[in-house]
Amino acid sequence: MIINSLMKLMSLNNISKSFNGKEILKNIDLNIKQENFISIFGPNATGKTTLLNIISGLLQADNGAVVWENEFYKNRVSYVFQNYRETLFPWKRVWENISLPLKLQNVKSAECKDRATDLLGKFAINIDLEKYPYQLSGGQQQLVAILRAIITDPVLLLLDEPFSALDFAKKFELQQKILEIWHEIKATIIFVSHDLDEAIYLADEVVLLGGTPTGIISNVKVEIDRPRTPGDLLSKEFVSYKRLMLDNFLSTQNIML
Ligand SMILES: Nc1ncnc2c1ncn2[C@@H]1O[C@H](COP(=O)(O)OP(=O)(O)OP(=O)(O)O)[C@@H](O)[C@H]1O
């Protein structure tokens, strides 16, 4: 089954952004649908994080507009930054880190702890809630950052290269977990990745960024059935998506497959 809501969440209309006189993003147009999983793939320094910063409202575009279908959605965005380790509070326990957004809404500590416990239970995540971040593995820290982002029921979850520092097995485990979380929370996910297999495997749509300044090279809908399993990585269908995207990408570098 392909989960693919037709309802629009937001759009990027002709977004451009420069830093110190150098144009990084140029004329980015993108329609984002509700409950879609969108991967953004592109080389280093193409402006992927800049794009997430603009979508989240942390950064203003120089030109163009971020248009939300409903103003209410704008305040329901959660963002897991690339440097997730630095965003966990070392002096707070796991449950306090996960429930921090609730604490900031003046939810009482006992309820914060209950909600964090429920969230771990719901996704069968085995992390000791009483531990501090430094006592966790990288993968566990990343999960804590993701759980903190979803505890407020976002409509849009921005994930900036969340698994890039993990080994193959852990990365694979967390990819399955993020699909499970996405399926359950029914939010839109925009997922930045440097890994083309990962970008295709997870997504309904892969947005390929490239060029100087950066534009959208292609926007490919991935219609591989869900739920997806590791075997999909070897399927003819998967390989043909990969070939198409590699072709698109390498043609911008004047390299032929
Ligand atoms: N606040 C800023 N001030 C000046 N330059 C910036 C700023 N933010 C980003 N840049 C520059 O814009 C370019 C794009 O940066 P960005 O972090 O968005 O790229 P990226 O595609 O996410 O990179 P990576 O894949 O390495 O994470 C880089 O050259 C970066 O140095």
TrEMBL record:
Pfam families, A to Z: ABC_tran
KW Oxidoreductase (keyword) present: no
UniProt domain ABC transporter: residue ranges: 10-236
Origin superkingdom: Bacteria
Name under which the protein is recorded: ABC transporter ATP-binding protein
Alphabetically ordered keywords of this record: ATP-binding, Nucleotide-binding, Transport
PANTHER family: ABC TRANSPORTER ATP-BINDING PROTEIN (PTHR42788:SF2), TAURINE IMPORT ATP-BINDING PROTEIN-RELATED (PTHR42788)
Taxonomic placement: Bacteria, Pseudomonadati, Bacteroidota, Sphingobacteriia, Sphingobacteriales
GO molecular function list: ATP binding; ATP hydrolysis activity
